[in-house]
């Protein structure tokens, strides 16, 4: 006989979150689904630094100073730490509205705009919000069913509304928003310094070698560990990677330094939110470069509102095979059972055992039909007579 048993299955909230994100380590790591370019970023940084530490650093530490590899290691570790912090964190995703909240917002919008005639385009869903004596428009997100906070925008790649959305960076494999922008800026800043550092000391290494054995002999020299690989290939590879990285990363660092000084985002700069035809001033700027930098890079970091590792309990009903004894009174007498057997089966206790004969009252003769000398006192059990027993024999 199959019995349905309800079991509770523990489900984390990150497993039910909408959007196009991937989670690892039980929801602790949050990234975009498109991570191919992020792996390329890791390969370029790790590969270039590995070549530099394996060949040039040993020679430069002996010829110039042992502080050269130490400072390079510090820059490398700092760049990797900020990269992973940017890539693995919640950028500031805003939760979507619950069905009840979405229905309430729809009712408010319909009450405000009224009924729109058929064939006409409904008015835009916008709320006005005042910040530092400036009117800021809050736009409605049709995907998340919410009015986005100021400076928030919906990322089309991750399919999430992100607070203080800057841009989606495929090189870090994540959106850049309010909760990880400072780490992104520190990453590109440290990566620029590391690239300049490696590029400079590659040139110094070739120059020192050329003074001793000549430039052509330096290019033909092979490392002792890998005799089949010419040092020319390794040096040229490092120089090329650093050269192209200088133009991109250093330029990107300068651009974001400009944005930090103005307390502005990349999204606002592209759209021309504060530099358009209306010449509306940026309400978030303090008018001071130092204050703007302190707010963006040193201000309090808001906690994540997703609660990715929260617990959702879901019940699962599973069927189990087993024997289930029937309760008292549920057993039906078969055709072969007699009346006495059916009555005996009906007087079984809940645990399936038959009560002792002394505990079962004799229903044959009532108290009123007994003679006066045979009547019992309350609580006294009836005693069967010997004559009744003989009559039965």
Automatic annotation (TrEMBL):
Signal peptide: none annotated. It catalyses: L-cysteinyl-[protein] + hexadecanoyl-CoA = S-hexadecanoyl-L-cysteinyl-[protein] + CoA. One of its GO terms (biological process) is protein targeting to membrane. It is found in: Endoplasmic reticulum membrane; Golgi apparatus membrane. It comes from the Eukaryota. It is an enzyme of class 2 (transferase). Residues 137-271 form the Palmitoyltransferase DHHC domain. Keywords: Acyltransferase, Endoplasmic reticulum, Golgi apparatus, Lipoprotein, Membrane, Palmitate, Transferase, Transmembrane, Transmembrane helix. GO terms for molecular function: protein-cysteine S-palmitoyltransferase activity. The keyword Repeat does not apply. Its EC number is 2.3.1.225. Residues 331-340 have a biased composition (Polar residues). The chain crosses the membrane at residues 37-55, 67-84, 183-208, 228-250. Its main location: endoplasmic reticulum. Residues 315-393 are annotated as: Disordered. PANTHER family: PALMITOYLTRANSFERASE ZDHHC9, ZINC FINGER DHHC DOMAIN CONTAINING PROTEIN. The DHHC domain is required for palmitoyltransferase activity. Belongs to the DHHC palmitoyltransferase family. ERF2/ZDHHC9 subfamily. This is Palmitoyltransferase. It comes from Aegithalos caudatus.
